[in-house]
Every structure is written in structure tokens, then in C-alpha cells.
Amino acid sequence: MFLQLLTLLGALGMFLYGMNLMSAGLQKTAGDRLRKILEAMTSNSAKSVLTGLTITTAIQSSSATTVMVVGFVNAGLLALTQAIGVIMGANIGTTVTAWLISFLGFKADISILAVPLMAVGFILSISKSEKRRNISEFIIGFSLLFLGLSLMKNSVPDLRQTPEVLSFIQNWTELGFGSVVIFMFVGTILTLVLQSSSATMALTLIMMSLGWIPFHMAAAMVLGENIGTTITANIAASIGNTNAKRAALAHTLFNLFGVIWALAVFQPFCTLIGHIIAAMGLPNPSDLVYSSTTTPTADESTAALYGLSMFHTLFNTFNTVILIWFVPQLSNIVTKIIKSKPTQEKEVVHLKYISAGHTATAELSIGQAEKEVKHFAQISRNGLEYIKSAINAKDEKEFEFYRQKLVKYEEIADRIEYEIGTFLNSIPQEEISEHTRTKVNIMFNIINELESLGDSGEAISRIISRRNMHEQTFTAENISNINSILELVDRAYGIMIDNIAGSNSKELGLKLAVDCEIEINQLRTQLRESEIKLIEQNKSNYSSSVYYIDIVSEVERMGDFLINISQSALQ
Fold this sequence. Notes:
The chain has two domains: about 1-335, no CATH class; about 365-570, Methane Monooxygenase Hydroxylase, Chain G, domain 1, CATH 1.20.58.220. It is built from 22 helices and no strands. It starts with a helix and ends with a helix. It is an all-alpha fold. It is elongated.
């Protein structure tokens, strides 16, 4: 019995691992397309629902979709109302899993083909083509999923050999509406423990097909699974911003509302499902009688499986059809429950886009990091404005104000580089495609150069501080020249940000960046040589000229960092 229990747990682990592997393979194969779908197809509620349904059907994980949606809301890529629609669609999309298990896991028993499919997967895994390797991951995950399901079915103990245990379980089914509530909580707890409504659904289908529990109690477990599955998004949102928390709460309220109305019409709803299955030429699952002395026939088992899958699908479909008209109201409710924190005027220190995590969707959530890198570049450009103000400050008090700003921005650059780097470093390399790994390496290069730009700003403030300490000043021509080279650097910043955002083609973006860098270098050389001539002719204060040349050189170094970023972004 103990060995049988260990086998059951191992089979469950194989099922979950197979599902995760299959989902990861699909994400690697179609990650960019899915990200584009999510960002483009959300202009209205109907499209949002369709988007959620499409993505969840593709990656076979509503939890992955909802975590991704919470992350995108956190990143500002989706509005709250759009996210609610996507989550509704994800709830419908996840019902496909139950139908796959019912058709292939029980009716056709695809586990027979699992090992041959693994051979195909292995052959593809040694291919030089990354796309084929990703497809192999999907095939092996698919095979492990159904092999795990088959092992679960075979390792579940036959309770008819111990009828007293089956009688104990069946006693729970004879408490009227209390039984519905009990089994609903069982479904919720199982989903919380397994962190997968699909795994709980598979266990429910197995128990029902073996005659442990009747159709009505299995349906109650499905309702509980819909509550339990919301915990994943709430965990992801717990470290996100206010809108991310609201999106996760909307998911919870959506499912809770559905469970409430489904409980209110539970018997009629189950009767409707029974009539639909009976119309398919199968026994009515609501009429099946379970006992410790009888085993369901093949038709009865099929009717129960199809009935539960139909219950799952219609429950989420009806719930979406009802609530899709009330998305703005649902948005208002969660906004009132989770209020925005009072805003305070302070420098941006923390990340804007990637605080909601990526654990469930490493491949898909890389877009958040790309947004964050662009945001970092824009923050860095703000620091350039403070450099200009420090150069043109009229007195020591005004300069000190901007010097502190530059010191603060250097700290901000350090902090953002660390947080983005930590995020990128935490992405499991085995869960992302080769193409995405290249993107991650490029982002590491970019954030390192952006941090160096922050260092340059502080370095310029230190040069001016030393100049002031030695009571030196710049001539009007010096300041005008520095402003000229700063204008070129500002133009280089704009080109760099466009290149990061993908606004320019590779050829055009590189040409613009190189041309601007050449102009910066030429002006640096011209200004330095002109100042050296003035020193030689005793027409300039040597100490003041040294500080002037140092600043011009440091500004030119900023141009070097900017061209490096543009070249990395255009790889």
C-alpha cells in the first residue's frame, strides 16, 4: 500500500512536470508571437477574452496566463479592464485541458504512444535547429503528461477491495447541499496544494471514472478548483504594484461570483449537463449510481468524463458571458477595495515594470525586462538635463542643488542596474530559447553602459566642485562650447532610445548612431586643441582650462557609452 502511494505521488509529479515542460516548449516556440498577441488584441472586452482563450489554449496553463497578465498590468502594458477580459478568456481556455485528458487520457489512452513520442522528441532534441529542440521539449512534456496520467490511473488503490473506505467517502456524498460544499472545499485545497487546477482536474476525473464519487460531487470539486487556481496570480501580484494587485483580485472576484451563482442553481445546472450528454447518445451522468459492489461501464465512465468536462466549460463560458458586460464595474470594485497609495514627490529608485515576477512565464515575461531597459534609458537621459543645469548654474547654491541631483541619479542608476540584473540573472536559462538568451545578454551589456552614464554625470559634478573649490570659473565661450557638445550627446541619447525601442531599422539606427558619435569626437578634438593653443599663448587660465578639458573629455566618454548601447541594441 505504501509503495502504491509513492507510485501515485510519483505519477502526479510526472504529470505536473510534463505539463510544465510542454508549456515551456510552447512558450519558447511561440513566445514572441504570444507577447505580440497579448499586446495587440486587447482593444475591447471581446478581443481581450479571445486573447486570453487563445494564449491559454496554446500554453495549456491558465495560471501561466494570469501570472503573465498580472505582470503586464504591473508593467503598464495592459490596462486593468483589458487584463480582466484576458483573465476571463484564460478561464475558458483552461477547460481545453479537461477535454484533452478525457479524450486522449481515458478514451484513447495516448500513453501507449508516449514512449515512441519520446523517441521522436529525443531525435529532435539533438537537432542543430533551436526551433526543433523547442518542439522536442513540447513533445516530451506532452508524453510525460499522459504517461503520468496513465500511471496515476493504474496506481490509484482499488477501494472496492476495502469497501469500508469507499463507504466512508460515499457517506460524504449523502449530506445534500452540505456534500456539495464539502467537495468544493476539497477541490480548493487540492488546487492550493498542487498549484495546478489541471492536476486537480485530472485527479477528479480519475476518482469519478473509478466510481469513487458521483458526478455531482466531482462538479462541486471543479467549482473549488476555480477558487484555488486564483492563488497563483495573487502570489505573483503580492510584490507588484497597485494595478497588479487589482488584476489578481479581479480574477478572484470573477471566479467567486461564478461559484456563487453555480451553487445557487447547482442541481438545475447539473441536470442541464446531463441532458446534453444524454443527447450525445451516452448515459446521463446525473443518473449514474455508484456503490462498492459495481464498477462503471465504459459508456458510463465516458459519460461521466464528458459530463464533467462539459460542466467545466459551460461554467466558465456562462460566467464570462454574464460578467463581460460588467468589466468596468468590476474594475471600479477592485479599485475601491485596493486604493492607490498617496504619491510623494521623490526620485524614481525602484523598477517600474518587472516587480511582479516571471516564475511561471520566463519566456513570455522577458518583454517586461525590455520595457524596463528602455525606461532606464529615459531616466538616464533625465540625468543629462541635470548636467546641463549644473554647467550653467549661476551661483554655488544653484550648482549644489543640481550636484545633489546628479549624485542621486548615480545612485538610481546603480540601483536600477542591480535590480534589472538580478531579474535577468534569476531567469532559468533552461526555460528560455536561444534567441531569448541572446536578448538577455544584450540587456546585460546595455544596463552596464547605462550605469556608466550615471557615473559620468557624477564625475562631471565632482570636476565642477573642484573648480569651485579652487575659485576658478569658465568663460562664456567655455560654457557655450560645453553646451554644444552636450546637445550632440542629447541627440545621441534620442537615437539610442529609439534603437532600444526598435523604432529604427538596423541599418538606419546604426548609421545615425555612428554619425552622431563621429560629430561628438570631432567636436571634442576641436575644443581640446583650441583650448591647448590658448594655454600655450597665455590667453587662458591653466587651472580653469584643465577643468574645462576634463569636462569635455567626460562628455565625450558619454558619447562612447551611447554608441556602445546602440550597437548592442541593434544586434
